[in-house]
Amino acid sequence: MAADPHDIPPQQFKLQELHTPSSFEGVLWTLMGIEDARTILHSAPGYYFNVHNNTLQNDWPVELYTSRLQFSSVMRGGEEQLEHAINTVIKQRPAALFVVTAPVTEVNQDDTEGVCERINYPNSLVVRPAIGQTCNEGREAAFRELIKLMDPAAEKRPLSVNLIGPTLSMFNWRADVYELRRMLREIGIEVNSVLSAGASFAEIKRAPAAELNLCMYPYDFGADTAQTMEERFGIPFQADIVPIGFENSLAWLEQVAGHFGLDISDYLANCIANATHFIRSNLVFSASFELSTVLSFENHNTYGLGIAEFFKKEVGIKVPLVCLSNERAAERVAASCEEVLVSPTLDTKKEKFVEYGPNLIFGNFYDQKMASEEGIMNFVVADIPTAGFLASENCPFMGLMGAKYLVQTAVNETVTKLLIDTKGDVAGELSTGSRDWDVQAEEALQKVSHAVPYFVRTFAVKKMHEVSEKMARERGTGVTVDIVREAAEEFTPARFKAKFAAIFDSAELAASDRE
Questions:
Q1: Rounded to 5 degrees, what angle do the CA atoms 238, 241, 247 make?
Q2: Beta strands 360-363 and 212-215: pairing type?
Q3: Strand, helix or coil at 374?
Q4: DSSP 3-state assignment of 184?
Q5: Residue 427: predicted pLDDT
Q6: Contact between 78 and 67 (Cβ < 8 Å)
Q7: Which of 103, 126, 143, 160 has the highest count of CB atoms within 10 angstroms of its CB?
Q8: 157 Cβ partners below 8 Å, 6+ apart?
Q9: Low-confidence ranges of the chain (pLDDT < 70)
Q10: Cis peptide leading into 208, omega within 30 of 0?
């Protein structure tokens, strides 16, 4: 007899099964960002819809087209549908046309290049993302394809650079470009081209006119592209300094100025004075040394590395854990944190969030969901996927303004929610609730409150208090030292447990002496 479908238990949905962006998204996000070009995804409508929807969740509106392959097209070949799509799109007279093949068209082996050659539209490219490669490998591959459309005879523009790295769905790229462009302009250097988000095709074509290439996200992608451009066009590049934080941003700018033989010592001095004044402000100086921050940047390794170094070396914010996806970045960031995880599962990350109990987490939407489930409400969205996040030019992570924004965000996100949680009474007396508390239990909880860092004290102690009362109600007793110990062991980060154990041992010894 067939089983009743109503009796079949539903499968549990696991976060680990969520889609990880692949080389196909990486290629598309790189090409779609060129504003006056058009991109056609040679695919079925369902695949097109998923890619376009994901892009719109992470960035401003962009255009993407599809050849609308059907099942029958896959079996017979989809060249006719692709030709129709191209002829429809080129009626708009785009500055360039890009055709990206989806996995299914690699199976049926359509002659995509042959279709484009017959139509012969100028500035056309066919890009075939490699199956099994990462999103960042796809971005790099798309950049290398764009080099084919660059003009090697472009006239050099003195004191100009290219910014290599920004693509759609690269978190906060727009603000980073705006800030780095501002800093460069203030020392007399212009940005010739941005590869590739927000650029026109004319910018891409004239990229060889620059005198220097700057890799914005060298621990993710872009360095191989810069190396190829150096070999082909003779443009040197810089990819060793990550311009995040005051020190590294100024070092980055000084390195660029040195390439052009510019003396910017007065400008640097003014910037240092301004940064020092900001850091010495009361709320920054008093709050930062109490904070601990977990950084989860598996889609943005450069951010994870740069922010960790900045927080530890310049601000005094502790970084117990950094999650990345790049071994090279992980090796370097190890000096700035207690532990590095490379491409951990979501279950592992969740366990680590609980273990370290940070004041604040930087990460993506799923990190935020897991953190909130564990009572960690202080969170900064800083990576994809975002499930919808509006980012403008006003909140960079890179450059001098980015350094200030990172600090003000960390401090404000933590302090504001702390004051809301405590109603402004950070160090007030703890309520003893509705259950009777032993004297030793009250004293132990008070001592525990002083062992917890100031800016998580109220939340942590309130949690122990609530759990202790719940245990006492379930057991029909008052709150004892043993119950408070159980609550502390179950609901506090591992790094505090040794301190708490000494407190409880002392309380039990005192109780024995009284007896």
A1: 140
A2: unpaired
A3: coil
A4: helix
A5: 46
A6: yes
A7: 143
A8: 190, 192, 209, 210, 211
A9: 1-19, 71-76, 106-107, 282, 285-286, 388, 416-435, 451-460, 491-515
A10: no
CA 337 vs CA 158, 166, 506: distances in Å: 41, 27, 33
Closest CA relative to residue 410, chosen from 337, 480, 491, 316:
316
Phi, psi (deg, nearest 5) at residue 89: -70, -40
Q: Are 394 and 430 in contact (CB under 8 A)?
A: no
- Let me know: does 207 contact 162? Beta carbons within 8 Å: yes
Phi, psi of 294 (to 5 degrees): -95, 135
The pLDDT assigned to 428 comes to 46
- Helix, strand, coil in percent for the chain, rounding step 5: 55, 10, 35
What tokens appear for 159 in the block?
Answer: 């004191």
Q: Which residue in 311, 363, 357, 318 sits closest to 338, CA to CA?
A: 318
Q: What is the DSSP string of 451-514?
A: HS-GGGHHHHHHHHHHHHHHHHHHHTS-B-HHHHHHHHHHHS-HHHHHHHHHHHHHHHHHHHHH
Q: Are 258 and 252 in contact (CB under 8 A)?
A: no
What is each CA distance from 300 to 20, 203, 320, in whole angstroms? 13, 25, 18
Tell me the CA end-to-end span of the chain in Å, nearest whole number.
69
- Buried-state track 436-465, b at ≥16 Cβ within 10 A, e below 16: ebbebbbbbbebbbebbebbbbbbbbbbbb
- Are 251 and 226 within 8 A, CB to CB? no
Q: Is the pTM of this model over 0.90?
A: no
In sign, the C-alpha dihedral spanning 483, 486, 487, 488 is positive
Q: Are 379 and 360 in contact (CB under 8 A)?
A: yes
Which token pair is 281? 């402000």
Angle between helices 246-259 and 173-186 (to 10 degrees): 50
**Cα 237 to Cα 167, 219, 244, 301, 411, distances in angstroms:** 19, 15, 18, 20, 36
Q: Amino acid identity of 171?
A: F
In this prediction, residue 484 carries a pLDDT of 85
| Three-state secondary structure readout of 258-279 | HHCCCCCHHHHHHHHHHHHHHH
- Cis peptide, bond prior to residue 22, ω within 30 of zero: no
What amino acid is encoded at 376 in this protein? Answer: I
